[in-house]
Specification:
Blueprint lengths: L20 H9 L3 E6 L4 E9 L5 E10 L3 H13 L13 E10 L4 E6 L12
Antiparallel strand pairs: 1-2, 1-5, 2-3, 3-4
Length: 127
């Protein structure tokens, strides 16, 4: 197609001109489960649906995980002491979890992105 100046307009990627490696890599991540950590230490786990040049990420079926509060840690320590467990300075406290659904994680707040591995599933078999 020609524009008014007479030059020819073409699409960026045609069947004869394959997409660059970084585009192919991002496409391979679509619908995969990602673990996205943010600057405030929250963890979002969901399926990648979209990203943009500003590194914003859209995740579907997302769960948010937060570090336990100081109060929850103190309560767990008091409970462990009441049960007579040895005081080693460590107590186990689970992260809080809530379902969010579809979320946008701003790229400026993303500190780490990890791809969840598919254990026991061979690529391309659908099993």
């Amino acid at each position: 197609m020609a524009d008014p100046s007479g030059s020819t307009l073409t699409s960026r990627s045609t069947p004869a001109d394959p997409a660059p490696d970084h585009i192919l890599f991002l496409r391979s991540l679509l619908n995969r489960t990602l673990h996205v950590t943010t600057t405030d230490d929250r963890l979002f786990v969901g399926q990648l649906k979209c990203t943009d040049r500003d590194r914003n990420v859209i995740l579907a079926l997302t769960h948010e995980y937060r570090q336990p509060s100081a109060t929850a840690i103190r309560e767990a320590a008091a409970l462990a002491a009441a049960r007579g467990e040895p005081a080693q300075g460590n107590v186990k406290v689970d992260m809080t979890k809530r379902f969010l659904g579809l979320v946008v994680v701003p790229g400026e707040h993303i500190t780490k992105v990890e791809v969840e591995e598919r254990v026991g599933v061979e690529e391309g078999t659908g099993s």
